[in-house]
């Protein structure tokens, strides 16, 4: 179980302040559609470090940060209190991105493995989601095809415990205004051009550490 001590070590000691600004082969037609959608969700003259048409707080834009020794390159760490995702590099640095996390008790801190990653995924609400918000998901019981309005956005990393799909994802979102808040039904949301950049550098098999949010941290103080 991830404790407050884990959180303090990760957020307080392992990451510094900012220092600088297996997939299935797809058909050519599908790749063309992906490219069209990518262009649709990417701002003109997009710059990873500075573009902010979404109006998010500047701290949620990507930053390169230093990390302490001992973190495994390729792994992902989600600081649920600060709303940051860190993707560990192999040179003593990490890329830091702003995220949104799940509402209330739907956020599940834990240690997961990225077993799958997908361009422009389809999405189907779980039975639990439908039971919780029947009106919200009416008509979507059989799922929603890929595209810029799909809740999983442009890219998705699928989180597993062993060989069990948890139905938790790290994914792009058509709602960038939610970044920095608590908005999802369990997943970790990112701005689509940000996860598009990170996606190609994430290998299947890496570990994703999701640390406790505010109430979990204070409850263990």
Helix content: 10-25%
Outline type:
globular
Widest β-sheet, arrangement of strands: 1-2-5-4-3-12-7-8-9-11
- Distance between the amino and carboxyl termini: 15 Å
* Beta-strand content bin: 25-35%
By CATH's scheme, which homologous superfamily applies?
L,D-transpeptidase catalytic domain-like
Number of helices: 5
| CATH class value | Mainly Beta
The biggest sheet amounts to: 10 strands, mixed
Mean pLDDT: 84
How many DSSP-defined strands? Answer: 12
| Domain module count | 1
Derived from helix and strand composition plus strand pairing, the structural class reads alpha+beta
What can you see in these coordinates?
With 221 residues, the chain is of the alpha+beta class. It has five helices and twelve strands. The chain has a single domain (4-21, 28-219), classed as L,D-transpeptidase catalytic domain-like (Beta Barrel). 20% of the residues lie in helices and 30% in strands. The longest helix has 14 residues, at 28-41. The chain is globular and about 45 Å long.
């Amino acid at each position: 179980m991830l404790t407050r001590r884990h959180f303090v070590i990760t957020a307080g000691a392992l990451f510094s302040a900012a220092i600088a600004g297996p997939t299935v082969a797809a058909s050519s037609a599908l790749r063309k559609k992906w490219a069209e959608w990518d262009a649709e969700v990417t701002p003109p003259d997009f710059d990873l470090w500075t573009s902010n048409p979404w109006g998010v707080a500047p701290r949620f834009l990507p930053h390169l940060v230093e990390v302490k020794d001992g973190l495994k390159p390729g792994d992902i760490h989600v600081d649920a209190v600060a709303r940051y995702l860190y993707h560990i590099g192999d040179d003593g640095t990490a890329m830091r991105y702003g995220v949104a996390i799940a509402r209330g008790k739907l956020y599940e801190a834990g240690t997961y493995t990225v077993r799958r990653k997908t361009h422009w995924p389809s999405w189907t609400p779980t039975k639990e989601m439908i039971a919780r918000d029947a009106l919200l998901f009416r008509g979507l019981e059989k799922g929603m095809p890929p595209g810029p309005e799909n809740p999983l956005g442009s890219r998705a990393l699928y989180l597993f415990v062993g060989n069990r799909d948890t139905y938790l994802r790290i994914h792009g979102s058509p709602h960038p205004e939610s970044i920095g808040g608590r908005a999802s039904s369990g997943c970790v949301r990112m701005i689509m051009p940000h996860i598009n950049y990170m996606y190609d550098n994430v290998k299947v098999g890496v570990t994703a550490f999701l640390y406790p949010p505010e109430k979990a941290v204070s409850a263990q103080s």
